[in-house]
Amino acid sequence: MPILSLNGAEIYYEDSAPEQANLPPEQQKPVMLFAHGLLWGTHLYDKQVEHFKPDYRCIAFDFRGQGKSEITKSGYDMDSLADDAIALLEALQIKKCHFVGLSMGGYVAQRVALKRPDLLQSLILLDTAAEAESPEKKAGYEKLLKAIHWLGVKRISKKVMPIMFGETFLNDKSRKQEYKTWLEHLKRNDKKGAARATIGVIERDEVLSRLPQITLPTLIVVGDEDKPTPYEEAQKMHFAISGSKLAVIKHSGHSTPVEQPEQLNEVISTFLTQVIA
Fold it and tell me: Is Hydrolase set as a keyword in this record (predicted)?
């Protein structure tokens, strides 16, 4: 199992082409780094990795406290998680990458872009935001935290699904098995890890005021059924980052890589073609 010790945490990652590291730079594929959302893991991007790996070296990793990474006592604030992502790139000797981040992964991606723009070739922000959590949403997440503490993630997972997925996915009977698969992924979360990661998300500071500093090619994507980070949040980032592109994925909630993988892959592919050109 590929594990790296980074900033006091054992971080799990998956690399579609580790042999690329031994090739001369001019022969190496461009790198895509995938950062998942809260309560998920590398599996969130399975369909993106499958699509892009013929042309890109795809690296996905689990944040501390989630997936197969270590549950540490601290280090769950967004800046510390950004430092973990930077340390991962440095440990793998990745000089440049296209950074893809969804929700929590997007909060982290923005901070990496602000801290170390030299490591990024482009920034791809999925179903995310740049502002601090609103008081209303914070109160809702605090209720979720209490439920996790008293009941565990398994007992409340069905109530979390409508936050993570849009109505189209949830009501599609032909995707019932997919629903069950993702419900099982949620249930596997460790209580302590999930709680600490959630606190990190709801207590994050805003970076919207700093986004004009980002000059990287940037793609911002939002599902038209996304409730946690709706279109208005995507639009704010779009206005703040000069030259950024904004795409809306139809019939998708907060988990576009799962809900509408073909649409998303096409949007990302078009963007990357423009960046490389």
Answer: yes
Residue type, 200: G
pTM of the model: 0.97
pLDDT score recorded for residue 139: 86
221 closest CA partner among 197, 244, 196: 244
Residues in the chain, how many?
A: 277
**What is the per-residue DSSP string for 2-30?**
-EEEETTEEEEEEES-GGGGGS-GGGSPP
Sheet strands (E) in the chain: 3-6, 9-15, 31-35, 57-61, 97-102, 120-126, 218-223, 245-249
Domain ranges of the chain: 3-276
Nearest residue to 113 (alpha-carbon basis) of 248, 243, 241: 241
- Rounded to 10 degrees, what is the CA torsion of 263, 242, 121, 92? -90
- The rounded distance, in Å, linking the Cα atoms of 8 and 194 is 18
How much of the chain, in percent, has pLDDT values that exceed 90?
A: 88
Q: Match 């946690």 to its residue by tokens.
A: 228
pLDDT digit string (tens) for 218-253?
Answer: 999 999 999 999 999 999 999 999 999 999 999 999
Task: Assess contact for 70 and 9: CB atoms under 8 A.
Answer: yes
CATH architecture, domain defined by 3-276: 3-Layer(aba) Sandwich (3.40)
Q: Render pLDDT for 184-196 as a digit per residue (tens, 0 to 9).
A: 999 999 999 999 9
Say yes or no to pLDDT of 29 above 80: yes
Angle at CA of residue 53, ends 44 and 187, nearest 5°: 15
